[in-house]
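Amino acids appear as letters; backbone shape is given numerically. Here is one record.
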Amino acid sequence: MGAVTIRTLRPAELAEFRAFCEAAWGKPHPLIHNPDLFDYYYRAPDGSLRFAVAADESGLLSVCGWLPASSRPDADLWLSFLVSKKGAPPALSLRLIEFIRSHTGCRTIGCNNIRPKTRALYEFFGFTVGEMTQYYRINDSISQYTICKITESANAPLETAGAAIRRLEGPAELAEFDFEGCDEDKPHKDRAYFQKRYFDNPWLRYQVYALDEGGKPAALLVLRLVGTKDAAALRVVDFLGSSERIPCFGPFLDRLMRQCGAQFADWYAFGVPDALMYRAGFLPRRKDSPNILPNYLEPPLMENVDFTLFTSDPEGYRMFKADGDQDRANLG
């Protein structure tokens, strides 16, 4: 291996880049090989590509993409699709991450759903590695569960206090929410990110709800109904606002789950106290739970799935299902 150069990916290299990714990953990947999905995630407004590459005279050795949570100069980032050529030094991954940090000036870096076998590598690099918890609530009015397996049928009690919750019908209504008031959140998500991710998504249809306090939205909740017309689950994929307001959504989510006939509701989260999720009516799925609450429902795959993550700054850091490149359209 000769001298290695670390730089950003050039648009003229896309064909070579995709061939490298297919060889290193072992098969085509929808994020990389579907041009529309690739552009949606990785092409910046100025046309540049949010990918760092390591290369020597033989060609590409390692690549890593990133996704900003806002348009601020020091935007918090999620890493996405880090892959290296077989035999490439593990240190190349760290060099790519450090290049992305320097190139973007980001405040924090995190990554959702890393391969568990890489855990030790990221810990060696100084990152905090953890797991998201799958919290769930069962629709106990269902007589026969077809997309999940319920052996232990139990729900956490709901707080009885009512809350004013309404659906935001369009992105213009995001102007009512104080995104700057969430500036200290890690990661900080701004209005532009929220609109693109949930209102302008060309493949998935999300529902965005606001908790109103004093006539203004004090917290935002994002969900979607996942599955088929005959069997579905209600999936919470994002939340913005103080975690203390999470219990306010509990009775609403329970009613909505029953109204739409969902067999269960789930909420993958990291950095939210179990006690707050319990007050919202959600139980944490234990590692040894006999219940199976599938993550993959399109089509259903009857197994529980755990998400391992890392972050450069765990203090106050939260992560939800849709963060990074997760909860996406798997277009071939």
Q: What stands out?
A: The longest strand covers residues 216-227.
